[in-house]
Please model this.
Amino acid sequence: MYFCVFEHNGSPKLGCATDSDRHSVINLTDAWPTGPESAPTDVAQLARMGDSGLAIAQELLHSRPASLPVQDVRLLAPIPHPAKNIFCVGRNYRAHIIEGNIAKGLPPETFPEHIEFFSKATTTVIGHGAGIPSYAGLTGMLDYEAELAIVMGAGGRDIPVASAFDAVFGYTIVNDVTARDLQRRHGQWFKGKSLDRTCPMGPWVAHKSVVPNPNALSIRLWVNGDLRQDSNTSDMIFDVPAVINQLSAGLTLQPGDVIATGTPSGVGYAMQPPRPLQDGDVVTIEIESIGTLENGVHDDV
Ligand code: MG
Model:
C-alpha cells in the first residue's frame, strides 16, 4: 500500500493506492468508518492507530475502486505538520563523505565512527510541487540532498537492530535542502538546515510491506534534468536498522516520527565549481519503489 495526503475542499485528506497503480487513490479520510477514533487525515495519525488502522485502510482499498486521479488533486506532504522536528542523519553515504572530505581538504577516506544526528524544524516541511524559496539575500549556497526517510510506526526506545523493522511504518523521500554557508557559520547544523520550506517530503509513503529491503534502492536526483546524484541506499555506512538502533538509545521514537537517512555524493557544493540552487531550478528526486518528488526553487515564494 502507498499513502499520500492531498487537499480536498480546503482540508487535508489521507489517500491510499494499491502496490501496482498509483495513478488513482481512494479518499480514506471520507470513507473511514465512524467509531471512537476520528478518521486519519495524514500518515502520522494512521501510524498512531497501529495494526487496527492499517487493517481498516486495507479493507477500504480492497472493497472499492481507487477512482480519484492523483493528477487532479493538490498533493501535500504525507505528514504536513509533524509533531516534532525531522530527525536527520549527517554524512552516511561512503562516496558523499569522500567528496565532502576532498572539498574541505581532508584525507578522503576518513569515516565517522558514530552516527551524526541533527534535526530540521517542523516548519521546513512542504509537499510535492510546492516552491522552495531561493533565500537569495540570506544564503549564497543553497543546496539539495536526496534522502530516503523512515516513517516510524510502533516506535519505541532502545530498539534492537534485530527488531528495528517492527518499529517502522514505511518510507518516503525527503529533500534535505541546506544553506551550506549558514550550516558552517552557526557551528551546529540546525540553522542552515531549518529555513522555512526546506524539507520537501513525499509525495508517497510506501508501507514497509512493499519495501522489504530499504538498503537496496536506487536513489537519484536531477536539477533541471541534469543527473547530479546517482547512487543506491546500499552505500550507507549506517543502514536503516543501525540508524533506528542508535537514535532510539535512551530516546523514545513515536509513531509518525520521520528520520532522514543522509544523502549520496553529487551535492552542489562539492562540484567544481560549486553549483548552488537558484531561482527557476527544478529539483527531482526518484527512489526505487517509493516514488518521485519534484519541487521548484523561486525568489518569490
Ligand atoms: Mg542531509
